[in-house]
Amino acid sequence: MHNEITQLGQAHTLLAHKEDHFIRAVMDMGEILPLPLHSFWLETIQKQHHCVSVECVAAYLLEFHPAKLLPGLSTGNIEHVHDTLRRFWKAYRNLNPDHDIYTRFPESLHLCVPCKLHSDEGTGLRKSAVMQYSWGGVMADAANSFDRYFFWCSILGEEYKKAHSGYEAGNKVLDEICEELVRQCRTVYFTGVRSPPFDCVFHLAWVGLEGDLPALARAFRCKRNFACAPNQLCYWCLADDVSVPFTDNGSTAAWRGTVHQTRPWTSRCPLSWIPGAETELFLTKDIFHLCHLGAVRGFAVNVLCYLVRMNYFVSRQLRTMATF
User: Fold this and answer.
1) Distance CA 283, CA 220 (A)
2) Which ranges in the chain belong to alpha helices (H)?
3) How would you write the pLDDT of the chain (324 residues) with one tens digit per residue?
4) 40, 197, 206, 310: which has the fewest C-beta neighbours closer than 10 Å?
5) Residue 220: phi, psi to the nearest 5?
6) With contact defined as beta carbons under 8 Å apart, do 256 and 189 qualify?
């Protein structure tokens, strides 16, 4: 492993073509998958863009690494997978009974793999913006991101930041990218992907979009979003910071009676044309990204800081040593 890391690090010593040298080194190690890149034309910026096709990745995984997509396969056989999928869709029906899957594939739910999308804006060189999109199975056996999220595409901020028109109006460049993502998601849902080891076709069914609050608002053109306080600011209900306080966590909170009453957008975004993504149910609640809101921001963080100040997390041995 040390020799491999040293070999990869040699690219940093070059004065030019560092990326090319790095990629060649990765290829020499046999760490690049034999997956073709898919290109599509972006009319908004008059350029070809590239992605790793959802269908190609899914087909590769189902042939060579099926446990990364099929829940329960690592601890059982294919019948265990079918049973797990049946139980998932039975439970999921309580949350979203109107999902297209219950009318389109009612007799083959054991062949429908629940999947989610992920969208987030990160930072690249010199903290420049980079938007990335990925996808993966909902019930992945592994806990690490490497086995749960599969890269689809990314785009540098300089290509799309000038197209920002606010959350409600959306971004024409990112919307056009999402149109291609929708096309691919619909293909693997309606047509499915064959799994040679099990001689059957699995359908990838989409149940959610993950990401932080800005990513969700931008992807679905949410007029109600986190930046609207004190006005209505929730994607899932009519909570605000005035008459329907979002900070009320009581059982009789006013916002509880407004959940899923109206859509948080005025015009549909491209992603909403994925079967199952027609309503705000598709926007998932990411606990990690909600930490700067509500009770976590106002109470839990302060308690954590207090416990650190009181040396609560210091080991007993260190506390004993500190008394001498």
Assistant:
1) 9
2) 2-9, 18-28, 54-64, 78-92, 101-104, 145-148, 157-160, 172-190, 213-220, 294-295, 301-309, 316-322
3) 677 777 778 777 887 877 777 777 877 777 678 888 899 999 999 999 999 999 999 999 999 999 999 998 877 789 999 999 999 999 999 999 999 999 999 999 999 999 999 999 988 777 889 999 999 999 977 777 888 899 999 999 999 999 999 999 999 999 999 999 999 999 999 999 999 999 999 999 999 999 988 999 999 999 999 889 899 999 999 999 899 998 888 999 999 999 999 999 999 999 999 999 999 999 998 766 666 666 666 777 788 889 888 888 876 555 555 554
4) 310
5) -110, 15
6) no
Cis link prior to 106 (omega < 30° from 0)? no
Residues 6+ apart with CB under 8 A from 305: none
User: Which residues, other chains included, contact 82 with Cβ-Cβ below 8 Å and sequence gap of 6+?
Assistant: 110, 111
Task: Collect all residues with Cβ–Cβ distance below 8 Å to 178 and sequence separation of at least 6.
Answer: 219, 269, 270, 271
Q: Is 70 helix (H, G, I), strand (E, B) or coil?
A: coil
Q: What's the pTM value of the predicted model, to 2 decimals?
A: 0.83
213: its two tokens: 């609050």
Please tell me the distance from the alpha carbon of residue 309 to that of residue 152, in angstroms, as a whole number: 43
Q: Where are the beta strands (DSSP E) in 35-171?
A: 38-42, 47-51, 112-123, 129-137, 150-156
Q: Which two tokens stand for residue 317?
A: 């041995």
Gap between the Cα atoms of 56 and 150, Å rounded: 11
Tell the residue number behind the tokens 């606010």, with chain if given: 166
